[in-house]
Amino acid sequence: TSEIFRDIAAKTGPGKSLIVFGYAGWSPKQLEGELALNAWFTAPFDPKLVFDEDRDKVWGIAKERRTRDL
After folding, report:
1. For residue 39, which of 9, 32, 34, 51 is within the disulfide window of CB 3.0 to 4.6 Å?
2. 51 and 16 Cβ atoms separated by less than 8 Å
3. Which residues in the chain show pLDDT less than 70?
């Protein structure tokens, strides 16, 4: 919402934020089918991965974590 942008600008919003723009859309059941085909992977949630890690290394770190968790 526009309010969160105002709060971030006023330094009264969340301590950390990541603003991204884009679009992803799937037809009904498409995502489930892609997950079943292992076209996607999931990794445990870790705020450091989102906010603190080197942006150039995030995908590699996430893939390593997923491999360890299998």
Report:
1. 34
2. yes
3. 67-70
Token pair for residue 13?
Answer: 């919003």
Q: Cα(58)–Cα(66) distance, rounded to whole angstroms?
A: 12
Encoding tokens for residue 28?
């009904």
Q: In which residue are the tokens 């679009």 written?
A: 23
Q: Residue count of the chain, please give it.
A: 70
| CB neighbourhood size of 51 (10 A) | 12
Instruction: Summarize the chain as % helix, strand, coil (round to 5).
Output: 45, 0, 55
Rounded Cα gap, residues 53 and 65, in angstroms: 13
Residue with tokens 């996607």: 40
pLDDT at site 62: 87
